[in-house]
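Bug: token stream looks shifted between consecutive jobs. Job 1:
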Amino acid sequence: MNKILLLLSLAIVVFFSSCVGPYSATREDNALEREEKVVLMDDKLQDDITITGLRRGKLENGLLKVEAQIKNQTNKSLALQIKLRFKDKDKFFVDETNWMPVVIGHYEIYTFESNSLSDKPVDYVISIRYAK
């Protein structure tokens, strides 16, 4: 009986000792957010909206200002959410806004604009999705 308990204890120790790290990190590789200025998070948005203009500039206080003109291509109002993520000179995301609700009337062109929260960003990615 003691031998069985000893072997069972040894098996448990070996099992749990093989479950410790180190482990390799999981990489989130979203190429669209690395290369594109605007990312549509819902597939059908490609049919419903068009980006008719993009502009960025620096404000006097060093903040990055981003503007996007979004055209509703449908005959109904669209409830959307827009998020802006800012990148530094090394292409790392350093800042982001919350999801902001926007309603764009049928065939309307809406100008979205937002500023970074610090002077570190030099680039940006705009994410757009249907309102949840």
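Job 2, same session, no restart:
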Amino acid sequence: MDLTKNRKNFIILAGALSLFLFLGTTVALAGGQNCPLPGQGLVPCGTPGCPCELCDLFKMITNIVNYIVLGIVPLIAVLFVAYGGFQYITAAGDPSKTKGAKDVFTAVVIGLVIIYSSWLVVGFALNMIGVADWTGLKTWYQIDCP
């Protein structure tokens, strides 16, 4: 019973920490008095003197995906590796608990491989069909609004 309660508490704490970090960073990134410079801000428009256009919607989606893939995914992976390490240390030689900890490590590695290899597969497929040539973009994952 105690182990289940500790697991629930850990998941709640990890979720609250992730939400806090996500919202805090999002609020800090969104905004500015004029048009933000490229790479600054989650929403690249909407301030006085900087109206939003259709291209800005795609730029915002790109910023959100980059934030999740490069910011949140590694943080969650580190939290789960720490959780798996804690399980492994506290297993005290119990084979079922040790197996559970190893399963957490395996799930983290598989999850990271799936997430980052999907990025590579999409990039490879879009480069093969020449999306950069007919859209005028340098790369498929980089959108530059005028």
